[in-house]
# Entry
Amino acid sequence: MIALRPRRLRRGEVVRSLVRENRVHVEQLVQPLFVVERAGDAGPIESMPGIARLRLGEAAAEARELFSLGIRSVLLFGVPAHKDAIASGSYDADGIVQQAIREIKASLPEMLVIADLCACEYTDHGHCGVLAAGGDVDNDATVELLARVAVTYARAGADVVAPSDMMDGRVEAIRSALDAEGGRDVAIMAYSAKYASAFYGPFREAAGSTPRFGDRRGYQMDPPNAREALREIALDVDEGADIVMIKPGLPYLDVVRAARDRFDAPIAVYNVSGEYAMLHAAIANGWLDGERAVDEILTSFVRAGADIVITYHAKEYAQRHG
# Structure
């Protein structure tokens, strides 16, 4: 009997590269950017080493640097100067995200600009929509708000809108609004399976979006549920989503794999702020080899089946592998 020796194909980097099953390409990565309306809100984010809130001009400059490294896509989050109960700043034609879209597209037309579509950064209560009597988020009123915002993003030049609210029926409403207002070419990347996760804390610091009362478990998904995620994804695909997303990434690789096995739509995964902060804390303490750990984590998303990886590690990865 011939002895089987799989180690023959691990003996050196050349042969390992030759037979490698999965690779992370820089073009698959999306770098999130936080853009502030008030200059005083700009600066480093303490819980996310290496990431900062950017002024408008800084965001455009950062986009140009990312593009030169091979990163062709950015995801925009706005930090507005004004908040109110109905998120009126979110649909202002001169709102901070709308300005950032125009600024980036004017200087870098080839950059794919994705605009996150949610009310939490714009409401004074911190929830992801318009509140009904009693303090619950009003699903249908919020869907109307999101559709209105999406149209302003499309008019500003966004290539993709990314609803992250987890309201029922919002993809269909956004698609209808975009199509009716000249936005047929604008794609929708739906946060289809967004879990009520403990890993969002640093983002909420960055965006100033912590709820002032309660939590988001009434609309974001319950972490133990996987079959429900597939139902949510199926609904979004049926309603016209061009790309579907699972968020967070690391605790939900099984959901990414299940979605890949069932759906043909492009799948995105969001390597969220808490995952980034957790890894950087371990690196800062000397407990992990940072470069190897980042590469391994990003590879895990691709191996699980993701086509698109939204990650705060995108720039550092591109600097090493671009």
Remarks:
- DSSP finds eleven helices and ten strands in the chain.
